[in-house]
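Justification of resources, computational component.

The compute hours requested in this renewal are based largely on the per-chain cost of generating structure records like the one below. Each record pairs the submitted sequence with a full structure-token output. That output is archived, and it is also reused by downstream analysis tasks.
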Amino acid sequence: MPPVRKAIFPAAGLGTRFLPVTKAQPKEMLPLVDKPTIQYGVEEAIASGIEEVIMVTGGGKRAIVDHFDRSVELEHYLSQRGRSDLLHILSEVDDLSNKATIVYLQQKEPLGLGHAVWTARSMVDGESCAVLLADDVILGGPEPCLKQLIDAHHKTGATVLAVRRFPRSEIGRYGVVATDGGRGPLYEVTDMVEKPEPGTEPSDLAIIGRYVLTPAVFKELDQAEPGSGHEIQLTDAIRRTLGSHPVVALEFEGDYYDTGTVPGYLRANLTLAMKRDGLREELAPLLRELLDGELGGTGL
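The structure output for this chain reads:
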């Protein structure tokens, strides 16, 4: 199979769940500890062999461009003050754009994930490509999550979806796949539905924000009509390729953090902070104090 060289990052959403902070600040730039969420995804893409990162942005997203651009003025300021430690941190961000080309396209209207991916169609031009959603941060594992999907694509030639099992009470927030009943971790997809109503979900395997898409999906996006939420859904386009083109789901290995909701975002920040030396030692006593105060206040 030809290599998967390009990755699309849909980053044009309005981030309304995080208002008012996202009124002027892109949701993708909200930090996990001290690094923007979108940087985790770019690092994963590059570690998976991606050569070109395609950012699909919207109005008010200039901060994403500035983050991955070099700041000569800031470097000069830090150099004059001998802050080699901070210069090293900046160099790690600058190095990302040296390892992969980063280009930017604008989605003129927020018409859904499928439309955002379709906006980049001319940039991939008949190639299989990756799609990464910045809200879904996946760390750890034997290999980066996207690399696991790319390997599955090379093995099968199929469109590949990252999936994870969820309690059925929570799965209605996601796209959900039906499979051939195999034992995994790689499943043949027989059907899929976006955000199913409670009790109608075909399985407990939810689609997480990592994909490898074949050109057949873009052909379907060319003819897509609005679906769930009056948006053009990527899930619907992939579903229409079933039967004529293979689609598989990979139950990936790695730690998954959903930063798309306020509770999930706070949970991810706390978890990653507690895994970092130096922060853990400062936070652990504070958490114990807060928990003791909360328990004492409730009489437990």
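The first strand starts at residue 6 and ends at 11. The longest helix spans residues 279-297.
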